[in-house]
């Protein structure tokens, strides 16, 4: 008899984006004349930059010729791209990362989920609350949690680190020591960052406790302030305790094309039950080669092109465009009297909903009274209740329109 992975039965259906879609559809049916502005989902709107598009066209032509054909590539990624990543993302920041510590993939989402394959299911996991749901759900599927507790909205066995206005959205060291710690910086959904000093404390904490930091820096390109680390490896000793996830999705508009990478330094060790040290780089390499057949040649040529002089200029223009939206949203919401966080080093703006209403009630009012869609904070975890996320990934025109509507809004 075929047995299932019963951990899936513990999963809570993610109603967040499907509920949002249903609510929009129902509103549109009732008010077909009303224009809705969507600042909810974190997908980009700017087209892929010209340099990358041209490089991909060229690669397509190349593979149609006998001498330019590319079949299966190296699972870890082509050298031409790994070299560029090492140079631009690490060496230029004074970080010593080697090419064989970089693993190309088809998404940071997959990597954040798949990394659990090389880690024991006995590990104790810590996540921030609110959180990018992938870290939590993949650990539930793997069996690193107990049952879901309906009343609290949490899973048994997971260490939740609340991040709210009270602690400035900076996670505090938990009472119980975790083995795996997920940190997403700049943060989705709160848009906050840690300074170098704050992140250094986490590196030290992980060292002292032999914990592993899973550092998601999918939004590092949006950092505008000084003293905010773009990579965890800017912190001394981090190579011994951290895996870093990066993505071309938000950096270069590759959400649909799919390209990302994970950095697993050679210095990073895990332990067997007998406390023998094992290189995580070796395990991840084995896992990657067994379960993944490489990112397409065309995609990797496209990603490589963003490191050209023209490519860098073009992607910086797009980032600037989104960050101007972020500023418009931040300032506009502040003028409208909201308490606002994030949006300075991240494309996400996290606002406090007015006293006395829930995140979902605020969602309904914003949709019905002004026709603007965002994401209720409670969808990212229990400590997200009372907050709301807007993204800067919309078009400038729509962002301006949405903010004007909110500024003229008197909540009923
Ligand atoms: N990590 C975070 C924190 C994200 O918010 C997202 C996408 O929204 C991802 C990873 C996914 O990246 P990718 O498109 O590379 O899978």
Describe it.
This protein is α/β, with parallel strands linked by helices and 412 residues long. The chain contains twelve helices and 17 strands. Strands 2-10-9-8-7-3-6 form a seven-stranded mixed beta sheet, sandwiched between helices. A four-stranded antiparallel beta sheet has the order 13-14-17-16. A two-stranded parallel sheet has the order 1-15. β13 and β14 form a beta hairpin. It starts with 15 loop residues before the first helix and ends in a 5-residue tail after the last helix. The mean pLDDT is 97. Bound molecules: pyridoxal-5'-phosphate (PLP). The site of pyridoxal-5'-phosphate has 13 residues, from α4. Pathway: Amino-acid biosynthesis; L-lysine biosynthesis via DAP pathway; LL-2,6-diaminopimelate from (S)-tetrahydrodipicolinate (aminotransferase route): step 1/1. It comes from Candidatus Merdicola faecigallinarum. It holds the Pfam family Aminotran_1_2.
